[in-house]
Amino acid sequence: MTTVGQLMRNLLLPLALVLGLAAGVWGDTLSFMGKGSGSESTTSSITWDCELTPPQFTNDVDNFSPSGIETACALRLHGGAANRNITGLDGGVDGRILTIHNIGVLNSLVLKDASASSSTENRFILDADKTIVGDSSVTLRYDGVSGGWRLFHAVSASTGVPGVWTTVTKAADQIVNNSTVLVNDDTLKLTMAANTNYQFRLRLFFNTAAAADFKFRHTGPAAFTRMSLARYGIVMAGSSFSSIATDSAYPISDITMLSAAATDPGTLWIDGIIQNGANAGDWQFQWAQNTADATDTTVYKGSWIEYTTF
Questions:
Q1: Cα–Cα–Cα angle for 146, 148, 152, rounded to 5 degrees
Q2: Are residues 172 and 300 in the same domain?
């Protein structure tokens, strides 16, 4: 006699498999519970465990074919010390769905559109190169008719979900000492996809000395469609806001915030919109001492940037 638990399992198993494939959810256990013919309870479980974690990349990759690719449902990839290009992926079978997770934080993986560096059947069929930033994922579906991998679903820090804000917080202090050379902040950046609209806001907390002061700029991909940013800041020893302006283009000169004390905490706000053009790339916050001085100028952990698409 078929129990309720067995019946539910038989009915829901096909649906569970479809949902698991579509969402790229693996390594979890799905349980079905029901009453048997008597008073006993029955439980049935299905466990998926097909995530594959290859070694970190040391170079760009053609015809990527890690051991176990034939049965993998998700690839957990790490670019290592740099951004990496992936020009093709082995294991394509018509209708196969495969999720790629970038488990790195600082570097991106780039799926190259129609790259001749990989075999025809392993190439990606995209409208443009697809950048997978750190802690982001894409799901691909293999098109057996065209012979290549197509984008099935993507939610990432670069494309985002319209109306849903992503916040990135600086996890450690960053220091510049005795240097006026602008450095890229190691956290405060926004990886922008081509032809995508972004709304964002940044809050910076820093400390500098009167002898050093603080300067900054922001930079990003050329040929954007529109930029409208507001910025303003203050240092503790100051009596009013400074660096108040709106930017409709990337600054061509440094923006200075003057300190008036031996150690002078300050804060800076930037917010607005960028409608990015055909060039993908990073909007990047840069900073340094305005006058080289052998005291530390520090951007504090807890500084943050958050963004959404629209």
A1: 100
A2: yes
pLDDT digits (tens, 9 = 90+) for 278-309: 999 999 999 999 999 999 999 999 999 999 88
Strands 29-35 and 41-47: antiparallel
One domain, residues 177 and 301: yes
Same structural domain for residues 127 and 180?
Answer: no
The pLDDT tens digits for 184-232 are: 999 999 999 888 899 999 999 999 998 999 999 999 999 999 999 999 9
d(CA 40, CA 18): 30
CB 85 within 8 A of CB 110: yes
Whose CA is closest to 205, among 164, 283, 257?
A: 257
Identify which of 157, 185, 190 has the alpha carbon closest to the alpha carbon of residue 171: 185
Domain containing 90 equals 51-155
Residue 69 CA to chain centroid, in angstroms?
Answer: 24
CA distance 307 to 108: 18
Residue at 160 is within a domain: no
Express each pLDDT in 145-157 by its tens digit: 999 999 987 555 5
What does the block give as tokens for 34? 């029901």
CB 186, CB 176: distance < 8 Å: no
